[in-house]
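Record format v2
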Amino acid sequence: MSGRQFALFLGCNAPVRTLNYDMATRAVLLRLGVGFVDIDAFACCGYPLEAADHLTALTMAARNIALAEAKGLDILAICSACSGTLMRARDELLKHPEMRARVNERLAKEGLEFKGTSVVRHLLRFLHEDIGPEELRRHVTHPLKGIKVAVHYGCHYLKPSEVVGGSDDPEVPHTVDELVALTGAESTPYSERQLCCGGGVLGYREADSHRLIAKKLDSVLAAGADLLEVHCAFCDVMYDGNQKAAERAAGKAYDVPVLVYPQLLGLAMGIDPDALGFRHNRVRAKELLARIEGVPATR
Amino acid sequence: MSRGVLVLGGGVAGVQAALDLADAGYRVFLVERTPSIGGNMIRLDKTFPTNDCSACILSPRLVEAGRHPRITLLTNSDLVSIEGEAGAFVARVRERPRYVDMGACVGCGACAEVCPVKVPSEFDLGLSERKAIYIPFPQAVPLKYVIDPVHCLKLTKDRCGLCARTCQSGAIDYGQQPREHALAVGAVIVATGFSQADASRRPELGYGRHPDVITGLELERMLSASGPTGGKVLRPSDGKVPGSVAFVHCALSRDVRRGVPHCSRVCCMYLVKEAMVLREHHPAVGATMLHMDLRAFGKGYDAYLDRASSSGIAFVRGRATEVLPDGEGGYVVLAEDDLGRPQRVRADLVVLGTAIVPAEGAGEVAGALGVPLDSAGFLAADPEDPAGLRTPRPGILLAGCAGGPRDVPDSVAQASAAAAAAASLLRDDREPVEPPEVPATDPAAEPRVGVFVCHCGSNIAGVVDVAAVAEAARGMPGVAHVERNVYTCSQDAQSAMAATIREKGLNRVVVAACSPATHEPLFQSTLLAAGVDPHLVDIANIRNQCSWAHRADPEAATRKAIDLVRASVARARELEPLGGGTVEVPARALVIGGGVAGMAAALALAPHVEVTLVEREGQLGGNVRKLATTFPRGERGEDIVRRLETALYAAGVQVILGSALDRLEGHVGDFGYRVGGPEGPVEGRAGVVIMAVGAAPYAPAQGELGRGLPGVVTNLELEEVLAKAPNGRTFAFVQCVGSRTAERGCSRYCCQSTLQQSRELAEAGNRVIVLHRDVRAYASGGEEAYRAAREAGVLFARFEPDRPPEVLGQKDGGILLRWADLIAGRTVERRVDSVVLAVGLRPPEGLADLRGRLRVPGDAEGFLLERHPKLGPVETNTEGVYLAGACQYPMSIPEAASAGAAAAMKALSPLGRGWVPTEAATAVVDRDACIGCSLCIRLCPYGAISKDAENRAEVSAALCKSCGLCAASCPTGAMSVRHFRDGQLVAQVRAVVGGGSP
Amino acid sequence: MGSPDELPLVTDSDLDPGFADRVRATPGGEGILHCYACGTCSASCPIRAIDDEFNPRRIIRLALLGLKDEVLTSQFIWLCTGCFICQERCPQDVRITDLMMAFRNIATEEGYPHPTVRAIAEALEAHGAILEIGEFENEKRAKAGLPARHMAAGPVKDIIEGTGLGPRLREAKGKAPATKGGEGA
């Protein structure tokens, strides 16, 4: 791998609630020889405040990007809400000089400036675009044969398509299916593939978000999938962290293991499940792991 | 050698323009990119609103274009370059090789039988396969084979070569080279047609992913009896007939993000037509339309939709959002209707009305011609041309969809108008046209009847045992020749028929096929070409009146077909040659009405003949003169009128203002008129009459929507208000006032006009609301104008017809208005400064009387009745009388200007030639038997009978329409109608009921 | 929604005809006038499918009519989950998701922020993130072999105070948005 380094953007949720995502990402990037650093000054991407005030949210996003720019690094974000927010912010600031000036006025107090020199991407876009399925497949030593994966693209990974979508058409995306296929697993079609996790409404009408989780999991089970794949910390919080709450609200059990993509890829690369943070998966994936050949048993 | 006109594109518009020009005496080069003319229209099964068979109304024209002496057909050809200027161009055309010698090919098809290569058929939109050597469709013109150089094994890999070895005529020529033609032309008419946008641009609708999601054109191929499924609608996935079909309107149109921003104009009507025709083929199938604004703006269109709705087709007003598989092999289409109810429409087949976009290669054509494209990629017209058909480069004209989406009647009218524009540039290149010599056929010779039984693909043969009919015909008395044809109307069958008639000395012909209404003229001209009097043919309609009507009982249908043929043969033997005759037509035209249409007609004729234009108002310009602003550029009506007026006087047209017609009578070639004007009466004679008397605005009754209260004005009165530049006030427009009622349809101009007025008011700082039933922004630039009006802040609110807005009275110096806002779920009461009633148009005062004088019928609403709604929009059934503009049906300014020029072009045929053929099958009096009772004179609707010096009835051949009323009523049998004699009709009856043949 | 006879009445006193212009001038609201009420947004919306109170097409319509108070004090503008499906599919590029944010921004500005927004702002000012990453959390991270995180609360607080959002939220009139029908259908 080239000597390129990235600034790893974790967001608010991953460092606390989805340690598995944090761990698995590092383990996989290390194995692939991709350099990354943590910028401690990173803070919330600003997404939760978009509902309150656009300028505030935009400034928070711009601050994070400016921090990376100051170190001359591009950003890889593991939470789709973060990558989406940061990319939209960057796009807006590049297109609207007056807004950029207002934001930079505020950033100047911290000695920062947004210039647009750092590119922001989601981790999976980097894997698909820069490394590519062919190359990634060469690192696969333990193909996940017979494992049926329901891919949850999530919303902010695909939309707004002209800003974040890459080569994916949001109605018929393909990149993550390819990333899953290279691990040897099978991407299973299911009726609610496009459905949002409801994370955006969690704080405003929890019952609605529980209903959305239930709808998704009903569909995943009906399709006969073994697990739900996610690549957004917020989606992970919803489907894994809140699965129990959704079960209570719906009055039924789901027991669907939720894996973040680096966990899937890591398993296929022969990385130890503990290193991939499986102990932090709220919905136990023990049975699933047992089915994968060559994977050491885990508690 | 005279210069000709280059027509680029052989669809309905190109063919219409070519025929108009050729009939008037001009040479035409008709250049078509594909191997056959016919365009998209020949793909259609039926056309709205008459549900005519498309091929039936179009293919006679294609055949005519293919054999017209003044039309040179260059198919498989492209325009390479053009040099020169209007009146003197040189166009270089490259004819790509067919690898088939057209002179040797007889169209037998043996080559295609043995060709091993199968390729998806372009004509059938991939729903069937063709060979590498092929004819695109059975009625292709020219009906010659062509080799596809991309897939032919011999041409690509030097293998195979089977077709050349099989061809008995030695027609295959692998070494054929392209031919270059340098054509001297005075004008170019671009009629390159349209293509369809790729429906997979909205993947959630499932095109390309779910097998049973198809486009409207693909459905047409299935509905067509000569198409890939023989007229059955079958699901591509399992070949079964669907139980229910969902039709998606606006699948890609009116979509600035992933589709095209413009309205494709024809889909509202054609999707409903498809639903109706589908249910004719499969009565048990359910149909649901998912639509937005229903753009049924033309004559009879609203009534058509009402019929569809009454027949059980469901209409859901909600944009189809997603097509999901239902898990059982079918689909669910999602939408939300105007009342906010989620819709889940179950369907086994989904049909998408995709968008009309410029034809492939249109950009290159525009580049070669030096013509700009508009924002949608269509060729752009000169904004100053009232008819929107002249491009900024003089001499380059547009017709049909090359300039933007059009339906068939508008394409046809525009094509004729473009032909008129071309004709004015080539005044000196018109060749004289002599009347055809009708061959003398000896009436005393023994009748030798040739019987041609048509399969019509599977239209007839799918029900009737054609072989049995032919066999039965062999035994009928007088029959000297029997043969069967797959399509008797096709070009090769026609030439073969002429040859057979000559070879076998046939002097009577029976064609057992379809309707004489569409095809009699075609067969009559074939007889003429074969040297036989054209009236010696009889057509037995074993399709519309037999195979179509008795699909469920093929045996009975076959027996009936045999009876029909027997009756035809019996009549044929009794037919007499009628010869031909002509009426002289002097080069003088009368145009009645000086609005946009009338002026356009007069201007188009002025270069060729003397023109008199009569207008009853004191000035020219009709309704348009009074408009302060017009769609789409906000030009003042007065300015548009002044341009036309100036040109009119400069062209030497005799203009008589302030004059009503005191007298108007006569027939083609000899119309007489008198007008009483301010300077005294003026009398004159003319060869043709063009009626362009316009329409009158509806006058709302006192109290209707607040009429009578200060501040309530009509949209025409608003012009005065606009002139005072109001600002900071609130206006509410109410659309469809006096339109879309039980007696009156859509008035077509008002949505576009309101879009213009409302946007101008909003941009000037006023608040504007438009209350409507549908926003019919169908015109070029219309949808864009709708968006621009919204961007300017105009609020659009739809109301249901049974719950119109109410004016509650005056309030605070303004008007209190109430309406039910369904989308908001609120009843809204607002005080506005002014209510503007967008009034409809009605037939003008005096129209019934005027048309009565010329025996032109009116339609159900009282407008003038055109000869045929699709292919005859500016002609009447009365020879020599044409119509143009809003007196036919309300229309916009460019449509009226087009119609006027189109009417002029139609009139130019008789005017330019100097003659018209008279109807030969007229009523005729046996003077010895006539007792002078005058019953016939009183009954004749055409005033064709008068008394001679000896008190006997006398028929004017020029006026007689052979309706037969006189002959049926004559108490002594003195009156009979040639070609419909008692003896002939009795022979038919006897042949059917038995009692031996006479 | 019932027959037209049952539609509640609104009159001039309920309407602010300039509201649509206000929305248009708010970031995210620039496209509101493009709407031609086709219903694609409502038919695509995952929230609408499970919660009848949320109807994006209707919300846009109410705003265009000028029913400002109803829109700003309602619960329904807070129900959008931000998935962008409507924004992708809207044929007139209204950018509905952005528009919902614009409504929320205006509501917050006018003194009707949703309580959750106040809670979010407080958390961000205190922790630099939605969730506190304190000693306890960093210990857990260490055990998992992950580097400690110290979210920059100070700069975040400065930003939130600096734009005036902080004070505005604290001063909010405290009118809780009217809830229609409780926790959804």
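Chain B touches chain A at residues 202-204, 209, 324, 327 (CB under 8 Å).
The mean pLDDT of chain B is 94.
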